[in-house]
Design brief:
Layout lengths: L31 H30 L4 H30 L1 H19 L7 E6 L2 E10 L2 E7 L10 E5 L5 E4 L5 E5 L4 E6 L2 H31 L8 H29 L2 H20 L21 H23 L9 H8 L2 H24 L2 H24 L5 H9 E2 L1 E2 L2 E2 L7 H23 L6 H23 L8 E2 H29 L5 H25 L12 H36 L5
Parallel strand pairs: 8-11
Antiparallel strand pairs: 1-2, 1-7, 2-3, 3-4, 4-5, 5-6, 9-10
């Protein structure tokens, strides 16, 4: 959606005869870029602020277990990357980018405001050998300790401290430290009484954000593309400035929203995200005519405008997404020993739709390319599809940031930055900070290497990115060996992971969309762009599944044995790092034939 054709590229002659050099500019670019830059900055402020809170909100306020929370997070981010395919198409054909952006901004801000209404914190309880007991939370030794108390006639007569053991059993101890009972593995089940109304409200809010994002995300970029005539060499640098707004917005919100959530309440963190989204809407709605002529509707005067019908259908998508979220949360676990068939059967409806579409689209497009295209076109499409598949792997692992890595920060990280306490949600700001810091360095590096004829090819950059994301996890795992007696690692180990991951992101993210447009057969570029976004959507869903593998049993939203959680995260992160590095090396080995199939595309 970035390189949407301008009026000039559609064959309309440039009759303005205006010298661009004589026009007022913003850092040498069209002045409208400043407003679109700020609009995107505030939208990303809202989205990333909400995202920094979401997993913690699910585990601490609603007291969902890790599996439900990370699965829901993965499903939500999957829809966030899938809906732009529809929103971009509707804007191109009927709405125009400007109206689509406004509609998306309103719907997203409403979604963030709805998240402010979470009701009372869920009341945790535990079921021990079929008997239900209340869970009491006490502040002890600078942290929270869980106790089970008698809420019905049973064996437990006094509050007993809960501690999970390495073998899966649970020990209940008295005040004097003596063991009252050891519950066998599987005999202790933690859950919570939560209001069905407020859970439904939360899922409704996520559905509204998902639909609204589909209208906003692709079309604000389209408007940036319209600022430049075909062949204007400022286009790439204009998008570089525009995308800096994304990182500036996310950097600010990932510090401020978690701070307010901790200092005031969850509602304040989500409320600030909603205010940021309203600023974004105001900038595009009350533009003072500065954006006149950009992002206008393609519907000619006198033709029937289908906008109201489209907006109504979009609103119907909200309950549809709500049902997908409900299905995702209630999916049955895989039956042990059922194999791949059992795994597919255990997927949520959303998972089946995503995987089914992706597994049909990739070979289907390749078969079509083989039958309809030339040998050269087929080879270029084959190279593109190979890179699309590896792209799924990269984003699956990279997107642990909002789920398993946030929970690791909350449970097994010393949350202090230069002596200043921070929250687990705020640790996500490291990625945005390092992107802002590294982007100009990486740009200079690639430019310098290109001048010497040494710039890596696209497959090599993808391979480096995969190896980098694996090395980031290995770096954190190395840090776990230095954990103190509280089973927590220094914050700098987590910051180091984000530094390496940010470097890896800059190796793959800026070249992905450009690669698709260059390698695709001209007749199906739009379809291939859809497959690219679909691959990222699939990756977000799989990221949720990977985070579920790293799940740790909790009581009242907290783990009762930090050694168990540290060992669990270390084991999972080690495994996925080995997978990433191995696949990265494989891609480096495939780089030569892929480069040959790309026929000079750089």
């Amino acid at each position: 959606m970035v390189d949407t054709p301008t009026a000039d590229s559609r064959g309309e002659p440039d009759i303005s005869h205006v010298n661009p050099a004589e026009q007022k500019t913003w850092f040498g670019h069209p002045p409208q870029l400043a407003r679109l830059f700020t609009t995107e900055m505030w939208e990303r402020f809202g989205y990333y602020g909400m995202r920094a809170l979401l997993t913690l909100y699910l585990t601490k306020h609603f007291v969902f277990g890790d599996r439900q929370a990370t699965g829901l997070y993965g499903g939500f981010t999957a829809l966030v990357y899938l809906t732009p395919l529809i929103g971009g198409y509707l804007a191109d054909q009927y709405l125009g980018s400007k109206r689509a952006v406004k509609f998306g901004a309103v719907l997203m801000s409403l979604g963030y405001f709805v998240l402010c209404f979470g009701g009372q914190t869920a009341t945790p309880f535990a079921t021990i050998d079929g008997q239900r007991y209340a869970v009491e939370v006490r502040q002890e030794n600078g942290g929270e300790t869980r106790y089970v108390t008698n809420s019905a006639p049973g064996a437990i007569a006094a509050p007993l401290k809960v501690k999970g053991n390495d073998d899966g059993t649970v020990t209940l101890t008295r005040a004097d430290g003596s063991v009252a009972q050891t519950v066998a593995k599987g005999g202790f089940v933690s859950d919570a009484d939560r209001s069905p109304f407020y859970v439904a409200l939360m899922l409704l809010a996520l559905s509204m954000v998902s639909v609204g994002n589909g209208f906003f995300k692709p079309n604000i970029s389209t408007m940036v593309g319209e600022l430049y005539q075909q062949g204007d060499r400022r286009r790439d640098s204009g998008f570089t400035i525009f995308y800096m707004g994304i990182n500036l917005g996310s950097l600010g919100s990932q510090i401020l929203c978690p701070f307010l959530a901790d200092a005031v309440g969850w509602w304040a963190g989500f409320g600030l995200a909603a205010i940021g989204m309203l600023f974004s809407f105001a900038l595009i709605q009350f533009d003072g005519g500065k954006l006149a002529g950009y992002g206008e509707s393609p519907i000619a005067a006198g033709q029937k405008d289908p906008a109201l019908g489209i907006f109504a259908l979009a609103l119907l998508g909200v309950p549809a997404f709500y049902l997908l979220f409900v299905n995702l949360m209630n999916m049955a676990p895989q039956v042990p020993g059922s194999g791949i068939v059992g795994y597919i059967a255990s997927l949520s409806l959303m998972g089946k739709l995503l995987f089914g579409t992706f597994l049909i689209a990739v070979p289907g497009i390749l078969i079509w390319s083989f039958l309809k295209g030339s040998a050269k076109e087929f080879q270029m499409m084959l190279a593109a599809m190979v890179l699309v598949v590896f792209n799924v792997v990269f984003w699956t692992l990279f997107e642990q940031a909002g789920s398993s890595l946030t929970l690791f920060a909350d449970r097994n990280t010393e949350l202090s930055l230069l002596g200043i306490p921070i929250s687990a949600g705020q640790t996500q700001f490291f990625n945005a900070f390092f992107i802002v810091a590294l982007a100009p360095v990486m740009s200079f590096l690639w430019t310098s290497l290109a001048k010497r004829g040494l710039e890596p090819s696209i497959p090599v950059k993808f391979g480096i990115a995969l190896i980098g994301v694996g090395l980031g996890f290995l770096f954190l795992v190395w840090g776990t060996s230095f954990a103190g007696p509280d089973f927590k690692v220094a914050l700098w180990w987590l910051a180091g992971l984000y530094f390496i991951h940010s470097f890896a992101e800059l190796c793959i993210s800026p070249v992905g969309l450009s690669m698709i447009t260059k390698l695709s057969i001209a007749r199906i570029v739009g379809l291939m762009m859809g497959v690219w976004f679909l691959s990222i959507s699939v990756a977000q869903y799989v990221a949720g599944i990977v985070a579920q593998v790293a799940s740790v049993e909790t009581v009242g939203g907290e783990v009762t044995n930090l050694k168990v959680s540290l060992d669990t995260y270390s084991g999972v992160f080690t495994t996925i790092s080995h997978v990433a590095i191995a696949l990265g090396i494989l891609l480096l080995l495939l780089a030569w034939p892929l480069k040959k199939w790309m026929h000079g595309v750089k």
